[in-house]
Amino acid sequence: MGTMGLHRIKLLLLFTFTGVCTAQNDITLSVFTVTSKSMTVQWSGHSGASSYKITATPKNSPEQPVFAQFSGNTVMGSVNSLSPNTVYTMQLEAMDNALNVLSSAETVETTAPDVPSIDQAYSKTSDSITVEFARVSGATSYILRAESKTGDFFLETAVTDSPGTVVGLQPYTDYILSVMSVNSGGRSQPSYPIEARTVVIAPKLNTSSASNDSILVTWPPVEHAILYKLIMIREGSSTRLVLNTTDTTVKFDNLESGTSYCIKAMAWDAEGRIGDDLTVCQITRPQTPDVTHVQVTPGRSLGIAVYWMMVQGATSYMGLTSNGQNCSTKDSYCYILPQECGQNHSVYVIAYNEAGPSSPSQPAAYITYPCPTENIWVEEPTAGNCSVVWENVPLVDYYVAFIKRDDGTEKSCNTTKTTCQFFCMCGYTYLTSVFPYNQAGTSLFAHVLNYTTIPCCPQDVTVKLVSTETLEVMWSPVKGAELYETTAAHTNNVLHCNDTSPVCALSDLSCNTPYSVTVTPCSELRGCNNTCTPHKHETAPCAPEILDMTQTTNSTYRVLITTPNSPSTNYTITATGRYDKYLCQSINNSCEFTQLPCGSIYEVIAVATTAVGKSLPGYSKTLETGPCCPSTVNVTQVTQAMTNVTWSPGTGARSYIATLRSPRGEAKCHTLDSHCLMGCITCGTNYSVYMDAISSTGHKSLCQYQGFSTSACCPTGVKLYRRTNNSLRVYWRSSSPQAYNHTVELYGTGANYTCFAAAGSMYCDIQEGTCGDVYRVVVAPVEKYGVKVTFCLPRTYSVPCPGSNAGMVISRRRRSVK
C-alpha cells in the first residue's frame, strides 16, 4: 500500500463514535482493510460499553494471539504485528468499567501475502514496461503499479506471474514502478519502487518507387532518436540488406522490377536502446512490356486486338493508340474499339502496379481493314450469262466477289479487277457482294445486291387425287414467280386455276377420266414461262353398285356388282360385321365370300381400285348368314321307348327342329327351347341325329351330329320253373337282333339270387335254398363294357314246396306269363 493508504488508516483510527445507541445488546464486526502485517476492523457500538478489546488468534498456527484495546467511543481499530498469509480469528469484546464482557462478535480473515521485491524493469516497446519480480508464497496474483514522476499518471495492472507487463504508457517517458502481492485476504504493501523509461517509437516510413529498379524511403525524425536502422528483404528471399543512418531519407537502387520488398525500420535512443520496429512493403514499378502482336479483330464493329508479354509484378495494363484510343485489362491482351476502315496507326502498352506505371513499350504499327465497296450492280447481256460489276475502292490489294443463290449454292471470284462473270439460272435470286482485301484483312461488311432471273418451270409438280372428282396440284415455290396458272385439259374442256400459292385444287371432274395438268409460273417483270411440260393424271374410278347377293352353300355367298370402269379395275367387296370384317376381290362383276360365320349380319360395300386410287364406296346392302348349329347335342334315353334331347344355343337361331332318324323310322320335335322330349324310340336301334336351326327371319341351317344307339331290348316270355333237384330255371325269349349276355336277379323274402347267361343262351339255373317263397324276377341284357339295361320290368312268381303240385310255378302277374 502506498503513502496515501497509510495516511488513510491513521485517519480511520482517530475516528470516534459520537452517536448514542439505546437498547442495543448485540454488536456486529467486519474487516475493513487487510495488509500482510495488520487488519483494520469496524464494529457497531454497544450501549454501556466503556472499552472494546480485539483479539487476533491464528488458526492452524502455534503463534501467540495478538490483541488491541480501544475506548468505548471507538468503532474502528487496527491490530498490527500479524504474520503474512495467515488465517486469523478476529474477536471483538465489549466491556464495562469492571472489564465484564457485555457482548462479543468474531469473524475469520486472512492477511495479505508478503511484500514482493522487484528484480528488474525494462522496456521493449514504446508503450510498455516489463517488470521481473520475486514470487511470494501464498500469492494468487500480483498488481503492477506505474506512476509518473510528476504524479499526473497512475496505472495498476493485474498479472498472474512474473514477469508482468504494464501497457498503455507514453514513449520515452520515465515511470516509477512497484509490485504488490494479492490473495483472498487482500493485497500486500507496495514493494520498494524502481524507475524505468520506455523506448522510442518506430520511424513512420513513407515509401515510393520512381522507377522499376529503385525504392525511396523517407520518414519524419523520431524524437530522442540518434540513429536509425533499416533492414530490407526481397519477397521470397532470405537475404537481408541492413543499413544504419542518421538521415531520414534512403534510396535503394539496383532492385528487381515488379518485385515487393519489405523494409523494417527502428530507432536508437541516447542510452543505446532500440525502440519499436515498423515494417512496410513496397513493390517496384513493373518492367516495360513488349508488344508481340497487333491484330484487327473480326466482328460487326471494327477494332484491334493488342497482345504483349506479361511482366512481373504488373497488376494491370493499358494499351494506347497514336490516335488517342486506349484499353485497360489485367490480361496479356486487350481490344480497342472502334476503329475506322482504311487507317494506319501505331499502339504501345504501359504496365501498372501499386507503385505506378512502367515506361511505354516500343510502338507497334498496324493497318485497319479496307472500307467496303459502295456501288455494285449485275449485268445480263444474254440469258444465263451474268456479270457483277463494282466501283474501285482505294487502298485495296484485291477483291473477292461472292455470288450466292437462294438455294444455298455459292460461288466466289478472286480478282484485282472490278468485274466478275457467273452463270445465272432461271427462277433464282442471286445475292451478290464484294469484299475488298488488304494486308489487315477484309472489310467488316459489304453491300448486298439482289438479282432475280426469269422464273423456271416447277420441276417437282405433284398431282394427287384427293377425291373422285378433285385433283390437288402441288409444287415447290419458284423464286421470282408472283402468280401461277394451272390448267387441266380433257377433250375440249379446259379448267383454269390462278393463284399466288404453290397449290391448286381442280374439282368437279369426271371419274375414271385422264387429264393433262400444266403449271405455268409468271412474274410482272418477266411474264409467264410457257415452256413448262404438262403432267397427266387420271381421276378415281367410279363407284360400283351391288346388284344381288345369293347363298351358294352354308358358308358361301356370291355378290354381283356393276363394273363402270376400265377392264383393269380391281373391285373390293367388304362385308363388315359387328366384330369382324371380310374382304373379297375381283376384276369382274362377281365375287364370293367363303367361310362366313353363321348367325351374323354384315354390311356389304363395293369399292373400285385402280393405279390412281379408290372410288367412293357404293351403296351398302345387308347380308344375313344362316344361324349357327348348336355346338353340342346330348341324347339321353329316359325309358326304353323315350329319349331326352338337349343342346347348346346356336347363335342367330330362334327355334330348333330336332330329328332322330333310323331305317325303322324317325322321331322329331320343333321347339323354341334348347331341349326336347321324344317318344316312339325303338330299342336296340342306331339313330342319326339331325338339327335344323332357324333364325327369326326364316334362315335355316341343317346340322348333323354323331349317331345315337338305343339300349338293347328287354327279353320277353320270362318264365320261372321248379326242377326236380330243387333248383329253379328262368327262361326268356330275346327281342334284340343281336346276342347279348343276360343277368338274372331273383329277390325273395328269404333270400336273393343272381346268375349270368352267356350270349345266345335263353335260360339260367339257380339252386333254391328254401321253398315256398315269392320271388321278383328281373332279366336284363348286358351291353358293351358290362352296362346292364335298367329299363326291364320285374315279374313276381310264387314257388310251392315239393309234393304240392310239383313243377308248378304260379305267376302273380298275368302279364308276366305269355
TrEMBL record:
Q: Which Gene3D superfamilies match?
A: Immunoglobulins
Write the protein's name: Fibronectin type-III domain-containing protein
* InterPro entries with a match to the protein in the record: FN3_dom, FN3_sf, Ig-like_fold
Q: Which UniProt keywords apply?
A: Signal
Q: Where is the signal peptide?
A: 1-23
- Keyword Signal set for record: yes
Alphabetized SUPFAM superfamilies for the sequence: Fibronectin type III
Top-level division of the source organism's lineage: Eukaryota
Q: Name one Pfam family in it.
A: fn3
Q: Which residues form the Fibronectin type-III domain?
A: 23-114, 115-201, 202-291, 457-542, 543-628
Keyword Coiled coil attributed: no
